Amino acid sequence: KVKSNNLDVKVTESELETEEKRTEEESTRESDSNILDVSSDYPREKHISIQRHLADLEKLADLKEDEKKPCPLCPEEKFKACYSHKLHRHLQNLHWKVSVEFEGYRMCICHLPCRPVKPNLIGDQAFSKMGAHYHCIICSATITRRTDMIGHINRHVNKGETESRFITVPAPKPSHEVLKESATDVQVLPNYSTPQKTDSYFNPRMKLNRQLIFCALAVLAEERKPIECLDAFGATGIMGLQWAKHLRSSVKVTINDCNENSVTMIQENCHLNKMKVKLNTKEDDNDEAMGAGEENTDTIEVTKMDANVIMHLRSFDFIHLDPFGTSVNYLDSAFRNVRNLGIVSLTSTDISSLYAKAQHVALRHYGCNIVRTEYYKELAARIVIAAVTRAAARCNKGIEVLLAVALEHFVLVVVRVLRGPSPADDSAKKVRYLIHCQWCEERIFQKEGNMVEENPYQQLPCDCHGSMPGKTAVVLGPLWSGALFNTGFLRRMLFEAVQYGLDEAQPLLKTLVCEAECTTSKHFSTHSPYDENKQEECGVYIKTPNTSAESYLVHGKRKSDEVIRNAAKRQKSENSAEHPAFYYNIHRHSIKGMNMPKLNKFLNYLSEAGYRVSRTHFDPMGVRTNAPLAQFKTILMKYSTPTYMAGQAEGPVHLAEDLQAGEQVQAAADGKAEDAEFLEDDKSGVAAAMFTKDYPTHCAAD
After folding, report:
1. Does residue 691 register a pLDDT over 60?
2. Which residue among 54, 87, 146, 610 is least crowded, i.e. fewest CB within 10 A of its CB?
3. Model's pTM, two decimal places?
4. Please, is 570 exposed, middle or buried when counting C-beta atoms within 10 Å of its C-beta (0-12, 13-18, 19+)?
């Protein structure tokens, strides 16, 4: 019995000990959680590895010449205590040089056991797994690699999280940089030029794009006043600010963005440019409340909505879309409420799919089959216009293309909206497929009609299918087959560019006018773009000094039947003089072993042959012409010179006998018998070398 009682006492004592341990663990967990909560809500002391200067790090070690001191950032097992000179080198080379800098502080590498170790590791294994790491100055995270730490800090900066949670570090304000473009100041984040999806992305390389859009809006502002315009993706608000600052009372600007930080920055930029802001973040406001004209003319309305929502809720005269990548997701809502004879402009930056680098993406976004061709930039513009045409036709609206520009990093399309099923049908008929020969790169749009042809290769002007084995052509599209430019609209855009001093847009607009008219050279008159012959354009009467008040468009009303008939007649006359589709690259079709003529001279040769010809902005060495590819190559061959005759003037290819006769006449005119004999001897050697293909280099210099 005594033994059993002793056992019972021991059991009860062990149970009490386990219960006490449990209560102690629970209390420690509660205290730890309280500490974590306090540390997350309140600032705390910084880690010893975060210092401003190397001297501050040395003060932690308390360096003395005669005493050995341990490293404050390394355990004794890793780095034993040593004298001051050796410890100084250790701190400088191992900790300070590999630190990460932020806001004047250095996050040095730390070897202390700060990171948690797996519970199954014991002794040396745990020590080997501890490794070096960095302590984040913002969120106190521990990160092992230096590159990861730099990326971690950059992510904090991109999100605007630059306030430190440490006591000794003052909370710095986010530094903003102020840029100026077209007399408009805009403040951006320090990482505005990084290719990341930041809260406010600003691309200085898109300045030309912004100038072209401004010119298009200025032309529309001359037709009717005031107009309501929307920048659906504001970011920093630079585009809408330029509209309001230069056009003043002619426009009512609305800048929209779905990101709250971007909306805040747009408001700050409006105040920076001394513009009043009308903030609206409600999605249930109707058109009447939003469109009231009682506010000041210098007031910019800033909205925080999804772009599709605001375009569904309200009507606008001018809409610009510039999302990240493709804009096909916003076309249906853009054409839903845009007013009659208004303008929709869109900038597409999904270059990889439009320029046939990612063909499966182009098929997914645009429903279009494409391949890489010599005219891939114009192909990209026609792909976007085809998608715009289908979206407008779904809303019973047609389009007229005013401008299509495809440069290195964007594709810009500006179209005018024509309300009604008849314009929608006419525009939809211009969306066709393209037959492209892969051997000679000849191309032609398929004929209208639904009948299936037995041999579609007969539509191509070339005979590659008969002379080459296998299938030689592919079908691309559907594409826009109509004109890409409106000459009258481009001339008025050029006039506005001169009026507002937009120097970068003027050379491009001059090239576009020549390309639209398919001419080589043109004299531009910027003082009178509104002549009597071009007062009417697509049903829109342009205000000129000689016209009455009834001769231009009344806001919100449709045109009469007579005006619509006149517009139809004008469109038919303009269609007959449309510029040729696509272009040829002169280098792509050059002859091997021959020197091509200069591009401007070659344009004159084509013009003398009776063809329409012009240069193109799509390709600096491209030639837009209505000449077939075979005739294009024939003229290029005729006026090319062999490579070994590079020193002579350009012109048609001559025979060797003609060259000898020309040299004899020149030698006789020289008047010196000795020089004439020398030239005749040299000439015979040249002729022999030409046939033996052993032409010496010094003869060309002579």
Report:
1. no
2. 610
3. 0.65
4. middle
